[in-house]
């Protein structure tokens, strides 16, 4: 007996080593699948927000942590400025900064930019390992490996974590999964040690992303579910109660959250459940020490008194919540609970494309075959239902809802889908391989493989399709199997468990076909993910390429324009543009901007929106009052770049009109249609945005044909009186204009024009005065 | 009248039953209970003080109350883990439970010192 024990422990050790190697390979896969953008383009930071994070990281690595906390940035939001230390989630920048510092102190001289570019792929490897741990806690290591493999290449996550996409989500998804893992681990073991770790992981999550509210609502929901379904245990208490206290304290240490951690409704659920769980714990304790009869008496006595107290407390709470404006919910959370909220009240949230609800194809694009495997995974979680698997079910249900509200929350759904699909696939393989083993007489000796062996094997065939690298792991597996065969006959004879297993045996042909189909499904997933990583999600969006019949075209206009700005303008010049380009202008051109992608001051953005939608003279006055020297517009009409300023123009009108009522959206629409051709309204044709975009456009081809709108523009020949063109990039994608200095005029005339425009300036001043600065 | 007297009698019986059941618990658990009660009492005291004086250094109030509630919660966790009657934690040594408790308290109070302001 001792010999077989030793053998089985040896096999376990062997299995662990195998799992370890598979995990390393999964990490390598997760890292390398995200390098397409570096290989196809170059090692640059992508898009908009990452540029800000990059700039903050640069500041951090140059000036140290204390200066970072106290950093008041006067390069943005001119003339207001922005307190960076108190308004930014510091997790990502601190992580990359630490990484850079460690590498540099090891004498590995990497630039800050390189570290920033590769932070996201590194953390996606960590995230897939965390997924393995989480799924292992739920359904064993076989499911864990499958889930980790799925997560390593789920397109939804790839879209946010390709090399160069240096954004909060890159580290936050790892933190999210790891926090959930530690919660489940605490729940399964009931150890205070893991509870402490759980709170610290939650702290990291709060540091990294605003999505931490998902955790602080999901975990109380799960605790509540456990209590309601009668699954309360003292392990649940240990997992939940210290987490709330420590988590709340740690969250309020992060400056951007601060007292919000106890003051806003997003966090109230956790406190309510905290109170509830104490009541329940007390009830269970008293139930434990009393005889059933006495307990009944106690219940009748307490219920009458306790209910009254409960109602009083709930009433007080509701009163507290109702007394605060917007019921204590912030705009973004409200737009989550009520999907129509944002479009009704906050155009600035609705204007961001990633805040729109997703379309059905985007589910297929982003999680692909996982969408079909998830229901099977849910069923697998119900048999048998444990605390851990009920948590996973709750996670998928809530995240499906949230992903339906906002495209970018698809990212939260992706890990849940991976976990459940991993469980489903692993269980399916488990059933099929087992029934094959029972039916093949030659292999029948191999039948009583323990559950761990069977499920780790189930990953094998799945792995072989993925990469050549896992091929040797597969070979290792077969060698292990053959060795096992030698040992097995000594072991226990066919017993009850075998009979039980025989009940779930499927016909041989069916199971073989099913396995082939499942492998095909996995192969489809791999092909799709690699395609998505290579083609769809790797474009850095500051360098564009297009394939045409005469070869590859590279449009590097953005960096051309920013480089022009940094070389040809004064250091203190202010550049006005729509807020999308604010971060890039400060990071790449190092010039002061009026508004940027951190949309904290609606009035300020509305001022710029108003200027863009006003006629030239009024716009000049607004810009002049803001001390603007240059105006930057992005124009895609020549090369067919669709996300240019003309297409964003209606949002400028809407946001501007929301604060300054003299800008009315219908003035810019002809019969409800947005058009720039000869049918366009005169307000539209006279707006600054139209003029700056199409100035001299007719000189390019003589017809002024706009390739994005696919029409000839309405007004072709016009002159600018208050602006002069200073630079237009090679493909006309970025156009820079300089404000002309005010002309010398007769004094009386100036006074007249000023008195005419006073109401507007006054209203604007008022708007500015309302600001906290 | 008869009904109320029966309920009071019930209540008395219940009280006696609870008391007798409780007095059977080991002394070390009783000490933990006393600690918990003391912590909760301190927290209540702070809340009353806040109601009288005002919330002004809100972080101080918050850290004070949460420190008390936190220690109470951690002590309850310790009590759950070292209770011999709890079958779930049979294989957890009391020394290990206490080490976890100390670690968690250390983290908690480090955070609180940081938050105190």
From TrEMBL, chain A:
Compartments where found? Endoplasmic reticulum membrane
Record keywords: Endoplasmic reticulum, Glycoprotein, Glycosyltransferase, Magnesium, Manganese, Membrane, Metal-binding, Transferase, Transmembrane, Transmembrane helix
Catalytic activity field: a di-trans,poly-cis-dolichyl diphosphooligosaccharide + L-asparaginyl-[protein] = N(4)-(oligosaccharide-(1->4)-N-acetyl-beta-D-glucosaminyl-(1->4)-N-acetyl-beta-D-glucosaminyl)-L-asparaginyl-[protein] + a di-trans,poly-cis-dolichyl diphosphate + H(+)
Q: Name one GO cellular component term.
A: endoplasmic reticulum membrane
Indicate the transmembrane segments per the record.
Answer: 12-33, 83-103, 115-134, 140-158, 170-195, 201-225, 237-262, 268-286, 298-322, 363-382, 389-407, 505-527
Q: How does it sit in the membrane?
A: Multi-pass membrane protein
- A GO molecular function held by the record: metal ion binding
Q: Which cofactor does it need?
A: Mn(2+); Mg(2+)
Q: Supply the Gene3D superfamilies for this chain.
A: 3.40.50.12610
From the UniProt entry, list the residue stretches annotated as the region Disordered: 451-496, 745-773
EC number(s) per UniProt? 2.4.99.18
Q: Name the family.
A: Belongs to the STT3 family.
Q: What is this protein called?
A: dolichyl-diphosphooligosaccharide--protein glycotransferase
UniProtKB/TrEMBL annotation, chain B:
Q: Which UniProt keywords apply?
A: Apoptosis, Endoplasmic reticulum, Membrane, Transmembrane, Transmembrane helix
Q: Where found, per UniProt? A: Endoplasmic reticulum membrane
Q: Name one Pfam family in it.
A: DAD
Q: How does it sit in the membrane?
A: Multi-pass membrane protein
- In which pathway is this protein known to take part? Protein modification; protein glycosylation
Primary location group? endoplasmic reticulum
- GO CC field: oligosaccharyltransferase complex
Q: Give the GO terms filed under biological process for this record.
A: protein N-linked glycosylation
Looking up InterPro entries in the UniProt record yields: DAD/Ost2 (IPR003038)
**Membrane-spanning ranges:** 32-52, 58-78, 98-116
PANTHER family linked:
DOLICHYL-DIPHOSPHOOLIGOSACCHARIDE--PROTEIN GLYCOSYLTRANSFERASE SUBUNIT DAD1
Subunit structure of this chain's protein: Component of the oligosaccharyltransferase (OST) complex.
Q: What does this protein do?
A: Subunit of the oligosaccharyl transferase (OST) complex that catalyzes the initial transfer of a defined glycan (Glc(3)Man(9)GlcNAc(2) in eukaryotes) from the lipid carrier dolichol-pyrophosphate to an asparagine residue within an Asn-X-Ser/Thr consensus motif in nascent polypeptide chains, the first step in protein N-glycosylation. N-glycosylation occurs cotranslationally and the complex associates with the Sec61 complex at the channel-forming translocon complex that mediates protein translocation across the endoplasmic reticulum (ER). All subunits are required for a maximal enzyme activity.
The UniProt entry's sequence similarity note says: Belongs to the DAD/OST2 family.
Protein name per Swiss-Prot or TrEMBL: Dolichyl-diphosphooligosaccharide--protein glycosyltransferase subunit DAD1
Q: Could you tell me which species this protein originates from? A: Pisum sativum
């Amino acid at each position: 007996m001792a010999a077989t024990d030793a053998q089985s422990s040896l096999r376990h050790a062997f299995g662990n080593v195998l799992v370890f190697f598979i995990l390393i390979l999964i990490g390598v896969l997760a890292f390398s699948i995200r390098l397409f953008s570096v290989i196809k383009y170059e090692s640059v930071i992508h898009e908009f927000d990452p540029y800000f994070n990059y700039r903050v990281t640069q500041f951090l690595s140059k000036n140290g942590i204390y200066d970072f906390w106290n950093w008041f940035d006067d390069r943005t939001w001119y003339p207001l400025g922005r307190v960076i230390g108190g308004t930014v989630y510091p997790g990502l920048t601190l992580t990359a900064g630490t990484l850079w510092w460690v590498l540099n102190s090891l004498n590995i001289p990497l630039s800050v930019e390189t570290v920033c570019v590769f932070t996201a792929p590194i953390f996606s490897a960590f995230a897939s390992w965390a997924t393995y741990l989480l799924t292992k806690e739920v359904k064993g290591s076989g499911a864990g490996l499958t889930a980790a493999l799925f997560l390593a290449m789920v397109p939804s996550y790839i879209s946010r974590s390709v090399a160069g996409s240096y954004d909060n989500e890159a580290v936050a998804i790892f933190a999210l999964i790891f926090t959930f893992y530690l919660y489940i681990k605490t729940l399964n073991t009931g150890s205070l040690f893991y509870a402490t770790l759980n709170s610290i992981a939650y702290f990291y999550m709060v540091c990294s992303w605003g999505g931490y509210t998902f955790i602080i609502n999901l975990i109380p929901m799960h605790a509540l579910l456990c209590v309601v379904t009668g699954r309360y245990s003292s392990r649940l208490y240990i997992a939940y109660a210290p987490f709330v206290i420590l988590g709340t304290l740690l969250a309020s240490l992060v400056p951007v959250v601060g007292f919000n951690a106890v003051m806003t409704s997003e966090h109230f659920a956790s406190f309510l459940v905290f109170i509830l769980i104490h009541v329940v714990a007390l009830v269970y304790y008293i139930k434990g020490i009393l005889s059933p009869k006495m307990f009944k008496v106690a219940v009748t006595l307490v219920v009458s008194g306790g209910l009254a107290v409960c109602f009083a407390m709930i009433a007080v709470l509701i009163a507290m919540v109702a007394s605060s404006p917007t019921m204590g919910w912030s705009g973004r959370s409200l737009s989550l609970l009520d999907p129509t909220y944002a479009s009704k009240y906050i155009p600035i949230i609705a204007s961001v494309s990633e805040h729109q609800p997703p379309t059905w194809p985007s589910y297929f694009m982003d999680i692909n075959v996982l969408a079909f495997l998830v229901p099977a995974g849910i069923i697998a979680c119900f048999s048998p239902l444990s605390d851990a698997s009920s948590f996973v079910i709750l996670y998928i249900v809530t995240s499906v809802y949230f992903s339906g509200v906002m495209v970018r929350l698809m990212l939260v759904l992706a890990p849940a889908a991976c976990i459940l699909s991993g469980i489903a696939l692993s269980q399916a393989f488990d059933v099929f391989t087992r029934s094959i083993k029972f039916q093949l007489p030659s292999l029948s000796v191999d039948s009583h493989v323990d559950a761990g062996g069977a499920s780790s094997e189930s990953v094998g065939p799945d792995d072989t399709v993925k990469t050549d690298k896992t091929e040797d792991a597969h070979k290792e597996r077969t060698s292990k199997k053959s060795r096992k065969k030698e040992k097995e006959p000594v072991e226990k004879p066919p017993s009850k468990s075998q009979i039980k297993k025989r009940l779930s045996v499927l016909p041989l042909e069916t199971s073989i076909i099913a396995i082939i189909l499942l492998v095909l499904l996995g192969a489809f997933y791999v092909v799709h993910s690699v395609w998505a990583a290579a083609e769809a999600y790797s474009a850095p969006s500051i360098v564009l390429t297009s394939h045409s019949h005469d070869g590859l075209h590279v449009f590097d206009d953005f960096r051309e324009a920013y480089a022009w700005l940094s070389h040809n303008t004064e250091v203190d010049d202010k550049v006005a543009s729509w807020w999308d380009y604010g971060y890039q202008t400060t990071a790449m051109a190092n010039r002061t901007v009026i508004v940027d992608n951190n949309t904290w001051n609606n009035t300020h953005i509305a001022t710029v929106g108003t200027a863009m939608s006003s006629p030239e003279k009024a716009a000049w006055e607004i810009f002049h009052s803001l001390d603007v020297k240059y105006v930057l517009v992005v124009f895609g009409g020549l090369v067919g770049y669709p996300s240019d300023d003309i297409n964003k123009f209606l949002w400028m009108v809407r946001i501007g009109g929301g604060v300054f009522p003299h800008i009315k959206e219908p003035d810019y629409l002809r019969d409800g249609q947005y058009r720039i051709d000869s049918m366009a309204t005169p307000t539209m044709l006279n707006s600054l945005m139209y003029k700056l975009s199409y100035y001299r456009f007719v000189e390019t081809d003589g017809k002024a044909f706009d390739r994005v709108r696919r029409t000839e523009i309405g007004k072709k020949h016009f002159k600018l009186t208050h602006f002069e063109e200073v630079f237009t990039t090679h493909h006309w994608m970025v156009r820079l204009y300089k404000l002309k200095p005010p002309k010398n005029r007769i004094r009386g005339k100036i006074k007249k024009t000023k008195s005419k425009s006073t109401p507007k300036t006054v209203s604007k001043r008022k708007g500015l005065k309302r600001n906290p600065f | 009248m008869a009904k109320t007297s029966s309920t009071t009698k019930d209540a008395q019986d219940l009280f006696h039953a609870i008391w007798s059941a409780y007095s059977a618990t080991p002394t070390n658990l009783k000490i933990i209970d006393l600690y918990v009660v003391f912590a909760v009492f301190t927290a209540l005291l702070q809340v009353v003080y806040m109601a009288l004086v005002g919330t002004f250094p809100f972080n101080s109030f918050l850290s004070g109350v949460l420190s008390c509630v936190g220690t109470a919660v951690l002590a309850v966790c310790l009590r759950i883990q070292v209770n011999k009657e709890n079958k779930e934690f049979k294989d957890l040594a009391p020394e290990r439970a206490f080490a976890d408790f100390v670690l968690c308290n250390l983290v908690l109070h480090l955070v609180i010192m940081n938050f105190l302001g």
